[in-house]
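Hi U.,

Before I forget, here's the chain from the pilot set. I'm dumping it here mostly so it's searchable later in email.
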Amino acid sequence: MTADDSFGRLYDDDYPAYTMGRAAAMLGTTQGFLRAIGEVGLITPLRSAGGHRRYSRYQLRIAARARELVDQGTPIESACRIVILEDQLEEAQRVNAEYRRATGSAGPADATAAA
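Structure:
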């Protein structure tokens, strides 16, 4: 692996670059919060060779959204479920948009305007 390959990982949203302590500090939360959302199944951090949790930038974005909801008074289990559903909806919308581009078909707004 070259130095350029290692540096490129810093831009990879899925690369587990952050320790639990660093992730908690970046989110302004506790390590216990990160453990709790892991126990509920919202995120599953990778483990280092020494068994320490490591988080990616994508996981930190998901955790930040859960923290927003919890800070607004949503129970942690509910907040995690909401974030999972939001993520699934975003992915479905992305797949639908790709399908429409590939097939040249109109989206829902275009279909009603054409009728």
